[in-house]
User: What shape does this take?
Amino acid sequence: MNNTIINKVSNSSLIIVDLQDYKSKGVRTLVDISQWLEEGVLREKAFRQSLKEHNWSKYKDHLIALDCSADLILPAWATLLITTYLSPFAKIIILGSLNELEKHLFSKTIDQLNLEKFKGKPLIIKGCSDYSIPEASYIYLIQRLQKVAKSIFYGEACSSVPLWKAKK
Assistant: This one.
């Protein structure tokens, strides 16, 4: 009697897609506009002066989420002005939270995925690997993969949940 254990997953055409493998490299930094407000108010002259004096080089190669924790309506030019200071240093700048930055980064990466290797294959989108991956990124990934995959599951090979199967 042969007691050899056969790994059926590694011998199958099943492809495991782990969004963790597609996570953009780089330091994520939230730049809070409220640090340049005076008593919760944007005073243009003081705001401009503070921006001129700020050490922008510390954001070199950072992935920036530009947001304001204060509950007020900022003039559009304020975020644009900050962006002019950040642009020479930051890799990317978005307006929003760190979560929105992460969604943006994953969307760009998913858009650039070569779908050819997934064509006609059963796929498992690996789940629970990293809580810093926004759920919206999984939704976007499925929309891309559904165009080419044979089937899509979620979870791990040993306990996956079927999500979708191509019509024959």
Helices lie at 8-11, 44-53, 76-86, 98-111, 135-145.
